[in-house]
Amino acid sequence: MIDPRIADSFARQSMMTSLQARLIEVGAGRCVIHAPLLAGFQQQHGAAHAGVAFTLGDSAAGYAALSLMPEGQEVMTVEMKINLLSPAMGDMLHAVGEVVRAGRRLTIVRAEVVALTGETRKNVALLQGTMIGV
Amino acid sequence: MIDPRIADSFARQSMMTSLQARLIEVGAGRCVIHAPLLAGFQQQHGAAHAGVAFTLGDSAAGYAALSLMPEGQEVMTVEMKINLLSPAMGDMLHAVGEVVRAGRRLTIVRAEVVALTGETRKNVALLQGTMIGV
Amino acid sequence: MIDPRIADSFARQSMMTSLQARLIEVGAGRCVIHAPLLAGFQQQHGAAHAGVAFTLGDSAAGYAALSLMPEGQEVMTVEMKINLLSPAMGDMLHAVGEVVRAGRRLTIVRAEVVALTGETRKNVALLQGTMIGV
Amino acid sequence: MIDPRIADSFARQSMMTSLQARLIEVGAGRCVIHAPLLAGFQQQHGAAHAGVAFTLGDSAAGYAALSLMPEGQEVMTVEMKINLLSPAMGDMLHAVGEVVRAGRRLTIVRAEVVALTGETRKNVALLQGTMIGV
């Protein structure tokens, strides 16, 4: 079962609702989010906009960080770097975030975003950044 | 008047339409995009999701790069780093992208995203990255 | 005159001594460091190693941040992104660091590194990152 | 045995010689570099300067990329992001670079830098960036 405070936080993000994103797994410094590739979030070539991969990767990384923070804290992104590996095309995007180092205040995170077309997986983006508890 | 190939490319990005973003200015290695802060793109605290600032900054930077590329080229993001300076709250977001160095294949770009509440401006995000002509 | 606590901190960095770097200016969220291009710090093509531009830009950014921190604090780099614009060749490298936003704990910084050959200036690197007071 | 073109390139980097760095392993998109923590490359608190971790991680990532490039190519860093996880103190630094995605022109890379004090290992830095064949 998913930690209720993270499920609640996720449910309050209207951005996740607009992207039809679902929180699949979260806990112990790891978080998985799935979302379909929607017609309304594309760039000019018909792939998902880089901002979609960023948004899903950033959220997965953020909730991975929050899963290790004390009760009552919220998480915010300090900074995030994304390398785009291939255009985000297909049926679904899977974002997996994980904690690299949980410090007292800052948490270093990483995320991968993969596009699925049927059974075929293609790496779309790699993210590395910093989260802060507030 | 805005370069028609950039106006066309922008118009084909359904992501820009969904964000109600408007292309305000583009040319000579510079691009300005405005968008309202919409209810459907928020994080859990009621500010715009970091992904919105990323998306607008990335697009402004991308079109700044494209404005210096030869006719017939398209632009893609290789990588982008964003530092978040304050929560994106208010009425509007203004993203300004500019080219730092236009190379033969790679273009180094920068973007700033500012939130406006009435006349008050607040810096929201600073981006630095690499675009490629394809 | 340069703030003595920053001059002292700089003088304690043996890395700066090895690079023959000099603290030229510091104050009000800005710092300038100059260093010659030395034979012992090159990559395989005879330019300065990317690590030299990184080191000078990172230090200039760090002291720019420290100049706005309360007495008694020290500064550490949380993260730094560097885009390399052209090979670092010539006589001297000038690094200019500046504060973009000084927060209560985190300071967002930027730096530029320029190579000088006689009177000719060439942009070598652009950095953007986060400093923390400790 | 280490690919001679990579051993040669490494040997021509005076920066690696100054850092007393040794090329331990390279091949198939992976490269390991070891270096002692030297007195002449410290920041103001007696740890290695962030520029040392950057330099070793960047070089390990670069040679990992080069190991997958065609004969006759050289490698240059386009951009690199480093998150610093803890101060670089101890006896040795080990940098491990690996290729995430080798494209036709651009190669996405990652590197980790670890400090060793006797048998104790501590993660020092995590890097993610882009290399180009020239």
TrEMBL record, chains A, B, C, D:
Thioesterase domain span: 45-119
Classification via Pfam families: 4HBT
GO molecular function list: acyl-CoA hydrolase activity
Entry keywords, A to Z: Hydrolase
InterPro entries recorded: HotDog_dom_sf, PAAI_dom, Thioestr_dom
Protein's name according to its UniProt entry: Uncharacterized protein (TIGR00369 family)
